[in-house]
């Protein structure tokens, strides 16, 4: 199956600065509803990449393709297959939602009557049915986000790019937005690119992630596969002579790093249960003072990729970072 997005040594220059510095990756699978998280610290080049996919920037070299179509040379083919929800508002404020959506549908190639029908249908779908005849300028922030989502999907594109879709939403509205995104991929087979600073959102809906930093891809991860693998990270504190602990761990297929003073960081591979840690420590005659375990989170994957966390468990982190679920 061909990828939905295919980047081949993509370089993009804005003004005199090279922003994307040779990006190559294959994301999504045509015909399968998958969500791709696009992550990166501020200034990494995410918006530039999105704008290049939408055909606004001519690559300095290399190519960007969507479903096999070149984003620069075949803009019309590409745009008819993409729905785009921008981060900033892009409404005509004294226009009703239904009229706005009909126009966006028409601009995306739908015939007039079909565009009107789809406008009504989509506004009901995102929960704005009752407010569809109101001017967009009177909408609350949450309603505006939903209207932006609606205009991105009104023409039923196979690929939807969402830039910070949960920005400014309260918890209930955020859940509704994420549920709609999941439905888009699971029930309608759409591919979704989700660009967000909220790793929790990406973790909740995405199947794969690509992390950019300074215009290059620093990490790609298949979250689906990571979720299936049962890798556990264990933080252990023991008292007693722990000089034989590492060997004991290796014997059961686990690995660990001593942080000194009885503190250990241990990685358990798939299929190895936490109980083995108790067994090994008992075998070594050690007293367990503390044992906590958790899975590798997307936050850790992200921080490692952008260089804020040590690459191996137990090694000192080069920089302190706030671990609050956002970037
Ligand atoms: N028109 C432009 N001319 C020159 N440099 C630009 C232009 N637009 C953006 N840049 C620079 O390109 C770099 C990448 O910007 P971009 O907006 O793509 O990053 P981003 O990952 O989307 O960041 P953020 O998360 O803050 O939105 C930044 O350093 C920015 O200052």
Automatic annotation (TrEMBL):
<keyword id="KW-0547">Nucleotide-binding</keyword>
<dbReference type="GO" id="GO:0005524">
    <property type="term" value="F:ATP binding"/>
</dbReference>
<feature type="domain" description="ABC transporter">
    <location>
        <begin position="5"/>
        <end position="239"/>
    </location>
</feature>
<dbReference type="Pfam" id="PF00005">
    <property type="entry name" value="ABC_tran"/>
</dbReference>
<dbReference type="InterPro" id="IPR027417">
    <property type="entry name" value="P-loop_NTPase"/>
</dbReference>
<keyword id="KW-0067">ATP-binding</keyword>
<dbReference type="InterPro" id="IPR003593">
    <property type="entry name" value="AAA+_ATPase"/>
</dbReference>
<dbReference type="InterPro" id="IPR017871">
    <property type="entry name" value="ABC_transporter-like_CS"/>
</dbReference>
<keyword id="KW-0813">Transport</keyword>
<dbReference type="GO" id="GO:0016887">
    <property type="term" value="F:ATP hydrolysis activity"/>
</dbReference>
<protein>
    <submittedName>
        <fullName>ABC transporter ATP-binding protein</fullName>
    </submittedName>
</protein>
<comment type="similarity">
    <text>Belongs to the ABC transporter superfamily.</text>
</comment>
<dbReference type="InterPro" id="IPR003439">
    <property type="entry name" value="ABC_transporter-like_ATP-bd"/>
</dbReference>
